[in-house]
Amino acid sequence: MFKFAAALAIPVALFAQAPKSADLGFKDTPILPGQPWHVHDPDRPHPPVVAPASTPTAPPSDAIVLFDGKDLSKWASHQTSKGGPAVDAKWKLGDGYFEVAPGTGELFTRDKFADCQLHIEWASPAEVRGNSQGRGNSGVFLMSLYEIQVLDTYNNPTYADGQAGAIYGQWPPLANVARKPGEWQTYDIVFEAPRFNGDKLIKKAYQTVFWNGVVVHNHKEVMGPMVYRQVATYKPHEAELPLSLQDHGNPVRYRNVWIRRLNDYDEPEKK
After folding, report:
1. What is the DSSP secondary-structure string of 230-257?
2. 204 to each of 145, 196, 228, 240, how far by Cα in Å?
3. On the CB side of 182, how many CA atoms lie within 13 Å of its CA?
4. Burial class (CB in 10 A: 0-12, 13-18, 19+), 220
5. 211: closest CA among 258, 156, 249, 173?
6. Could you give the percent of the chain with pLDDT greater than 90?
7. Which DSSP letter does residue 162 get?
8. What gap in Å lies between CA 84 and CA 96, rounded to an integer?
9. For the segment 13-29, what is each residue's pLDDT rounded down to a tens digit?
10. Distance (Å, rounded) from C-alpha 84 to C-alpha 98?
């Protein structure tokens, strides 16, 4: 009985001293191009844990909530020159939403962003007034420069690169997914900011856009900041800038706005 127990102890001890399982990774594999990591490198940092929302369209745990239905404290009408204090938001606050106050100007986030994931819901007025670009017009401006058009395009003909979901003046959406006037619509946008080296553009901006759950831009190259009736071109600007929403004279509503900064989680480890 004693000898049998002793024999069992030997493989147990060997198992305790065994090397890590290959399931955890390898160090004898090639180095990935442009990276310091081996293929399946066990030392590569793991992604941070992010708790998903319990309901669709709600913010995940690492999101910055820009509007929670209660106040506009994350927004300003504009910022004074030389980095002075922001002017309080002048748009109308409703029951769980905020609304363009025509004539008060754009709304800007107090924080600045670059690469990001943005979720935003909007609704054009239920009472239809005007036509083409005069009907439920606003816009979501990444970095206050790169516009995804907001417009009531439900049975409302207009030029293709100016309809809802368009990268304004550059690319029409792949589909018109408009809901009826007054109904809530959703944009989910993945934005890659441009990169500059001094005065030189080294990488253009890209946008992926889902409109009401339908992809309408798939990693689309942006020609430059929004410009009216001209071809967009890039000019150097800050690495981070506020998100802004356009006052185009129509009382468009917004709600459930949140954003996530997109950074390479293992970037600090790169050599």
Report:
1. S--------S-B--EE---SS--EEEEE
2. 13, 9, 19, 15
3. 4
4. middle
5. 173
6. 60
7. G
8. 30
9. 444 444 456 678 788 88
10. 25
Phi then psi for residue 217, to 5 deg, are: -145, 125
Residue 107 has pLDDT above 70, yes or no: yes
* DSSP 8-state code for residue 199: T
Backbone φ and ψ for 200, nearest 5 degrees, come out as -100, 130
Decide if 145 contacts 112 (C-beta within 8 A): no
Query: What 3-state class would DSSP assign to 110?
Result: coil
Task: Write phi, then psi, for 3 (nearest 5 degrees).
Answer: -65, -40
Distance, CA of 29 to CA of 38 (rounded, Å) = 6
Identity of the residue numbered 23: D
| Helix, strand, coil content of the chain in percent (nearest 5) | 10, 30, 60
Locus of tokens 């009408």: 77
- Sole residue written with tokens 């981070």: 240
The three-class DSSP label of residue 23 is: helix
pTM, to two decimals: 0.83
* pLDDT score at 176: 93
pLDDT one-digit tens code per residue, 217-256? 999 999 999 999 889 999 999 999 999 999 998 999 999 9
Instruction: Note whether 165 and 171 are within 8 A (CB).
Output: no
